[in-house]
Amino acid sequence: MSRLFLLLTFPVLFDFTFSITFHLPVNLRKCLREEIHKDVLVTGEYEVSEQSNAKNNLKITDSSGHILYSKEDASKGKFAFTTEDYDMFEVCFESKSPLGTGRVTDQLVNLDMKHGVEAKNYEEIAKVEKLKPLEVELRRLEDLSESIVNDFAYMKKREEEMRDTNESTNIRVLYFSIFSMCCLIGLATWQVFYLRRFFKAKKLIE
């Protein structure tokens, strides 16, 4: 039972932290996308290597194009926002330089993002609510359990939606197949009567 719980929990835990390092060529734009559930706190920390002849812009948007965070000349900093609905959000870094692409080296971007339980600052919560270390760990486990329950509830909801869509599609395919068969039978019947009249007109049959 414990092994099964670990197998079910680990994928959820891995989804809380997102860390990546990549090179950003000059005068180009690189974006990362991730899906996040509703009412989830997202925090992030980024750092871009210094380049005197390049300017970097950071913009975070949702699927509707709403700007969740924007920073010009972004070299190092933090951001945080809370999702209003289940959505796909996009983190974009853009490098600009007046010297052109061949005269400026690529910049190194470090991005560390957290959401859900990992994004909460439990040390600050402990100070505000005057919690003991054991109470802080219990609060963390409670939030983690709630997050896991919400994830499973969402997966169950998606499974029900896909099952309903599948059943609806099967019914439509069945009706279309019946309609196609009726059309073929009607066309075949019409051909028989047409050919019979044609052969009678040619006096090939009586």
Kindly describe this structure.
It holds the Pfam family EMP24_GP25L. InterPro entries: Emp24-like (IPR015720), GOLD_dom (IPR009038). The chain has 206 residues and is of the alpha+beta class. It has a domain at 16-119: Jelly Rolls. The chain is 44% helix and 31% strand. The chain has helices spanning 2-14, 122-129, 133-201, and strands at residues 17-24, 29-36, 41-48, 55-61, 67-72, 76-82, 87-96, 107-115. A four-stranded antiparallel beta sheet has the order 1-8-3-6, with no helix packed on it. Strands 2-7-4-5 form a four-stranded antiparallel beta sheet, with no helix packed on it. A hairpin with a 5-residue loop joins strand 4 and strand 5. The radius of gyration is 30 Å and the shape is elongated.
Give the structure's gist in a few sentences.
It is found in: Endoplasmic reticulum membrane; Membrane. It is a single-pass type I membrane protein. By secondary structure, the chain is of the alpha+beta class.
Second-tier CATH architecture of the domain at 16-119:
Sandwich
The whole-angstrom Rg is 30 Å
Kindly estimate the percentage of residues that lie in beta strands according to DSSP. Answer: 25-35%
Number of helices: 3
Amino- and carboxy-terminal Cα gap = 82 Å
| Sheet with the most strands, sense and barrel status | 4 strands, antiparallel
Anisotropy-based shape = elongated
The H-and-E topology, N to C, reads as HEEEEEEEEHH
| CATH top level class name of the domain at 16-119 | Mainly Beta
Estimated structural class: alpha+beta
> Could you report the average pLDDT, rounded to the nearest whole number?
81
Walk across the major sheet and give the strand order.
1-8-3-6
- Low-confidence stretches are 1-15
Main location: endoplasmic reticulum
Protein name: Transmembrane emp24 domain-containing protein 10
Domain GOLD: 29-180
Keywords: Endoplasmic reticulum, Membrane, Signal, Transmembrane, Transmembrane helix
